[in-house]
Design goal:
The protein is built from four helices and 13 strands. The longest helix has 23 residues, at 38-60. It is 25% helix and 21% strand. The relative contact order is 0.20.
Length: 274
């Protein structure tokens, strides 16, 4: 509970700073200029404390990898893999220590390359991962499922990435974990292990909270919601269902292992094809 309160306070401090910064453009604040920076300084202090706590929690409770089935079928490539570094996404926040991103590969419809300037954005439908089915990695219970957020255009050009990093990511971080992960589903695998699938396609969920699912059962479709540069699957294991307090748990995919950055692999979920 203490950590959750600290996370909320951290978010509120940044929000206060952002609101007053915008307001100061239109009205003169009723306090000295230097006082306006106090919320930002306090937020930085809380953030440093949380980061240190995250490192300590991770070091004190490292677990052996949990073997599960792959969450996708077909040919995929890995990005931001824990096989190359941990935390794989540069942070322990939201239980992401051992998270992995994967993108679909299709020789007949190649994935669009990163562009320097043009095209600035692309439609989600231009990427082979968009709409790909996602499967339960084990027999489990659905503890959270939402798919009401929109799938946005890609952020795979220099101008779009700059917008993502400087504007969009900051706004999403202030709004909380669900705006960062976008549409997502969380499964309780038992034994204190939970699986999360993020950036799901809007309206694609086939399950809801409380459902029991079997390994290999379709859960949703790959999308481009939340803090995402292009349609891809963000998958992670963690020790709790609350993203603000969960710690990452290492995984290995049955028959695949943990693919490294840029490694292409063939995946076959449990019981696939049904």
């Amino acid at each position: 509970m203490t950590r959750r309160v600290a996370v909320v306070v951290h978010r509120l401090l940044w929000l206060v700073f952002a609101v007053q910064a915008v307001a100061s453009v239109f009205v003169e604040p009723p306090y000295p200029y230097w006082a306006g920076w106090l919320p930002a300084l306090a937020a930085m202090a809380v953030g440093v404390t949380l980061a240190g706590t995250d490192r300590g929690r991770h070091t004190a409770d490292s677990r052996p990898p949990v073997e599960v089935a792959p969450p996708v079928a077909g040919r995929w490539s890995a990005l931001n893999s824990p096989a190359d570094r941990t935390p794989s996404h540069g942070t322990h926040q939201y239980g992401q220590t051992y998270a992995i991103d994967i993108v679909a590969e299709d020789e007949e419809r190649p994935r669009p390359r990163f562009a320097r300037l043009w095209p600035t954005v692309r439609r989600s439908e231009d990427f082979p991962a968009f709409g790909a089915p996602l499967f339960a990695v084990a027999d489990a219970t659905v503890v959270h499922a939402e798919d009401g957020q929109r799938d946005h255009l890609s952020r795979n050009s220099l101008p779009a990435v700059a917008y993502l990093m400087l504007v969009e990511a900051a706004v999403r971080a202030l709004a909380g974990a669900r705006r960062v992960t976008g549409n997502h589903v969380i499964l309780d695998l038992g034994g204190g292990t939970y699986a999360m699938y993020a950036h799901l396609k809007r309206g694609s969920l086939t399950v809801r909270a409380g459902d029991r699912v079997a390994a290999g059962q379709e859960l949703a479709r790959c999308g481009n919601s939340g803090n995402s540069t292009e349609p891809h699957v963000h998958f992670q294991l963690m020790d709790g269902a609350d993203l603000d307090t969960a710690r990452g748990v290492p995984f290995t995919w049955r028959g695949v292992g943990v693919p490294g950055n840029g490694e292409t692999f063939e995946a076959e979920p449990a019981g696939y094809p049904a």
